[in-house]
Specification:
It is a single chain. This protein is of the alpha+beta class. The chain is built from twelve helices and 21 strands. The strands form four sheets. An eight-stranded antiparallel sheet has the order 3-2-4-1-10-9-11-15, with helices on one face. Strands 5-6-7-8-12-13-14 form a seven-stranded antiparallel sheet. The site of glutamic acid (GLU) has 14 residues, from strand 6.
C-alpha cells in the first residue's frame, strides 16, 4: 500500500501535500514526490526513501503554487528510485497512481510506435502518455482522461494535473481507495481519511469505475458512461485515532480484517499468472541460490511465531523443503544445524525483535542464506 494526495485552493500546496502524505506513512512506501502548478508551469520534486528526504529537497529547492498532487510509492514495476518515483509526466500531463496497470506493456509498445519516449520503468508513466496523446488530438482534459481509462486494465487510484488546465484536477478509481474532502474554497484528495482530518470532516468516497472532476469548489462525479452521479457528502465524526482505526474498535481487529488486502498488496506486481513466474525484487537470492536450499528455518517470536507455524505448513507442502518454525529466544541457545544450504527466514513485525535479530546474527556466522520478511 502507499498513498496519494491532491489539493486545489488558496493555500500553498507543497507543505499541505507533505503533511497529508505523512499521515499516510503507515501504509508503507519506498519513495515519494509532489508536483505543484504555478503560472502554467509544473514543478516536480521526487526522491527515493523517506518523506524526510523530500522535505529536505523542498527546503533546498522550494515549489510554490496552490494546486498540486503528491505520492508515496510502493514499487510494483521498476525498482525504487528517483526516476521511477511519482509524479510522472508526459507533455502537459502529470499523474500520480496507486495500483497496477496490467496491460501496460502492450500500451507502452503501441505508444512507443507513435513516438512516445519513456523515462521510467513504471506501468504508471504510460497513463500520462495516453492522456497527453488524447490532449494532442484535441480532446479536453476530462475527456482525455475518460478515453484513456477505457484503454487501461488494472487497479488504480489516479490523480491528474494538466498544466494548461489550472482550474481542476481529475481523479479516477478502480479497486484502490480515493476520498475527496470538501473545504471552503478548497478541495482535498487522499487515499484515506486520516490524511484529510486536519483540513475537513466533509468527505465523499469515489466508487469503482468513477471519475471525478475536482475544483476549488468541490467535486463532480461521473460514472463509466459519463452520467453524473449524485453522492451525499459524509460528515466524518471520528477523531484522528478512530480514523486510523478505520471504523474498527481496535487496531488489532482492523489488522485482522486487512489481512486479505495486505496479502494482495504484497503479491501485487510480484506474481505473474500469465508467465507462471514470481519476481522477488528485494530478496537477495538468485534462482540458483534457491535451488541449493535443502532446509528452511523460520525464526520468530510471539504472534510472528504463529505466522511461522503456518509458514512451515505451507513451505513443506508447496516447496517440499523440510522447514522448522523456531522460537527466536531459544534458537541461539541450542545448536541449530544450519549451514550454507539452510535458509534462515526471520519474521518480525517491527524488524527490531531482539531475539530474532540475535538468531539472524547466529545464522550469518554459520553462513546461512537469509531472506527478510515482515508479518
Ligand atoms: N505500479 C506503480 C509503480 O510501480 C504504482 C505503485 C504504487 O501503488 O505506489 O510505480
Amino acid at each position: 500500500m502507499c498513498g496519494i494526495v491532491g489539493y486545489i485552493g488558496r493555500r500553498e500546496a507543497a507543505p499541505l501535500l507533505l503533511e497529508s502524505l505523512k499521515k499516510l506513512e503507515y501504509r508503507g512506501y519506498d519513495s515519494a514526490g509532489i508536483a505543484v502548478l504555478n503560472s502554467g508551469k509544473v514543478a516536480i520534486r521526487r526522491c527515493e526513501g523517506k518523506l524526510k528526504n523530500l522535505e529536505e529537497i523542498l527546503a533546498r529547492s522550494s515549489v510554490h503554487g496552490t494546486i498540486g498532487i503528491g505520492h508515496t510509492r510502493w514499487a510494483t514495476h521498476g525498482r525504487p528510485s528517483e526516476t521511477n518515483a511519482h509524479p510522472h509526466r508526459a507533455g502537459d500531463v502529470v499523474v500520480v497512481h496507486n495500483g497496477i496497470i496490467e496491460n501496460y506493456l502492450e500500451l507502452k509498445e503501441e505508444l512507443s510506435r507513435h513516438g512516445s519516449h519513456f523515462e521510467s520503468e513504471t506501468d504508471t508513466e504510460i497513463v500520462a502518455h495516453l492522456v497527453d496523446a488524447k490532449l494532442s488530438n484535441g480532446a479536453d482534459f476530462l475527456t482525455a482522461v475518460r478515453q484513456s481509462l477505457q484503454e487501461i486494465q488494472g487497479s488504480y487510484a489516479l490523480v491528474f494535473l494538466n498544466q494548461r488546465d489550472p482550474e481542476r484536477l481529475i481523479v479516477a478509481k478502480n479497486s484502490t481507495p480515493i476520498v475527496v474532502g470538501w473545504g471552503e474554497g478548497e478541495t482535498f484528495i487522499a487515499s484515506d481519511i486520516p490524511a484529510l482530518l486536519d483540513y475537513t470532516r466533509k468527505m465523499t468516497f469515489l466508487e469503482d469505475g468513477e471519475v471525478g472532476e475536482v475544483t476549488a469548489k468541490g467535486l463532480r462525479i461521473l460514472d463509466r458512461k459519463g452520467k453524473i452521479v449524485h453522492r451525499a457528502v459524509k460528515e466524518i465524526t471520528w477523531d484522528a485515532v478512530a480514523a486510523r482505526k478505520g471504523g474498527y474498535r481496535h487496531f488489532m481487529l482492523k489488522e485482522i480484517h486487512e489481512q486479505p488486502r495486505a496479502l494482495t498488496d504484497t503479491f501485487r506486481g510480484r506474481v505473474s499468472l500469465k508467465e507462471g513466474d514470481v519476481s522477488l525484487e528485494g530478496v537477495p537470492l538468485t534462482r540458483s541460490d534457491m535451488k541449493k536450499i535443502d532446509r528452511i528455518h523460520l525464526v520468530a517470536c510471539g504472534t510472528a511465531w504463529h505466522a511461522a507455524l503456518v509458514g512451515k505448513f505451507m513451505l513443506e507442502e508447496i516447496a517440499g523443503i523440510p522447514t522448522e518454525a523456531d522460537y527466536g529466544s531459544e534458537f541461539r541457545y541450542r545448536s541449530p544445524l544450519i549451514d550454507s544450504r539452510s535458509l534462515l527466514l526471520p519474521i518480525s513485525q517491527s524488524g527490531e525483535t531482539a531475539d530474532t535479530l540475535a538468531a539472524v546474527e547466529l545464522g550469518r556466522k554459520r553462513n546461512a542464506s537469509r531472506s527478510v520478511s515482515g508479518d
